[in-house]
Amino acid sequence: MPIKKPKQAKLPMPFAAQELSHDDDARRRAILIKRELEQADGFSWNAEPQGFAARIRNAPRHKLIAAVVALGMAVAIVSAFLIAMDSGIEVPERVVYMESWDGNRTSEDALRDQAEAMDRLRAQVEANRRAHEAEQARQKALEAERAAARQATS
Known about the structure:
single chain; mainly alpha; 62% helix
């Protein structure tokens, strides 16, 4: 016995009034779909769309809490970036990822350039160290002055 291909069922369209159809199967499907939609808290394709305030009022409490937490996290991240922008961290003047030289550059030239760059870096580190030591000395002098003022007043 050959296998017969099943007849394709016409599915009801969401906006069609299938309950008025002359086809018994279409009416039955429409009634079942209507009952399922009624069980789904009054959902309907033909209902007027709710406004934002009505959707907020009808939303479950756990969804509102999750939305507030997500919004709060986004605000925290953006504000952290804004605060970091005003922290005084400056972008270096020039960032060089790769330098290109002519084909006639020798290894001695490369070593000399590297030594010059290291000397500049060492000088900058030494200047920063001296500035830090001067700031530390100034802080110690201020603390000693405050201690002397406290002793004089007591």
